[in-house]
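Support request, please re-run this one:
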Amino acid sequence: MKDFIKECRIPDMEEGDKLGDSPLTQEEDDEERRNAHTIVGRSPFTYEFRKVMEELLLKTLLPKDISQSKEGWAKRDGAKPRTSSSKYYTTPDILPVPKRAKLTLNTGEDIQSSTDVENSSNPTSKGSKPATEVMECYIRGILNLKDNAGRLYLLDHYTMGVILHGTREQIARQELKKVTFDLYDGAIGFVNIRNVHWKFVYLHALSNHIYVVDPLQGSNEVEDSRKAAYKFGEYFKMRRNRLGKEDWVSIKWQPGKITHTFQKDATSCGAFVMQMAKMTVKEFPKIPKTFHIKSSQHLRRDIAEEILRGSVSKDDFCSFCGIEDLPTTAVDAVWIQCETCGRWFHTQCLGMPAARIPKKNTPWYCVLCILTN
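Re-run finished. Output below.
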């Protein structure tokens, strides 16, 4: 810039004479000659103007604030950061604390409102594993004791949930290739709702009816049964298309309703479903007109006793530990049989010392039989 200014020469006075006589006096003319080759040039430029020009052209003004630089032009007005700006990540002085989701307690109203939502039941959720295993074990034990002809099929709760609430891709993975439904006159099971509630599902193939029974009061069971009838109709058509199976494809399922008592608390839905399944198996092939269930404190204990009675073999395994062989840790361990139910036990499992073992012809009764009788 300095070289550029020096090269910008103003015509001297000799060249000015060619244009005409100068109106300046001799002193003014000498002053102008001295300033002819400077930045000021002619006399109309004052000292103040020369100072301003030198600051603008010859000096580089640094930005006094980040807001005056190019980086700050596109930024919003705000407080000046305490740390120096950088194009790399700068660790903040205070780390933000994530907000925690509020835990809400599911009530009966929440469960009832969820039945109207298409995805209210998560088909990929397997519910509470201990509760699920207990319920299916109980229903399987009831079928083994009551359904001697084997005309009722127990549909596991996971497959039931996928059929009723799953997508087409999820339903296609539940084909049940080895099951022939034409060998059965009906199917029972239960479905999980939002991991907190259970409903009983009953397919009566002899009358072409489907029943979805909710132990909790307030749901539209006829509408739930109508949706289940449509879902199962589509499911059996899918099996025909993928596997070539024609079983139960021609059945035009109709919704049905069974009157019943309702649970009075928020935790008895599983016990009610098991009792509904028990009454259904007992009345089969007839359809129960009503489910009358007494909600009492002994209901769960009665269910536990029935599970223990039907869970193990009476002749081959110890009804306490479930092991066939005698324990090797005790030399005096022997088998003992209950006089009433015929179950066998290890005396070591019962904590029975050798002195308390009854004689050969003396009757002995297990704890289950003593409690029930």
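The chain has a mean pLDDT of 76. The CA atoms of residues 233 and 250 lie 9 Å apart.
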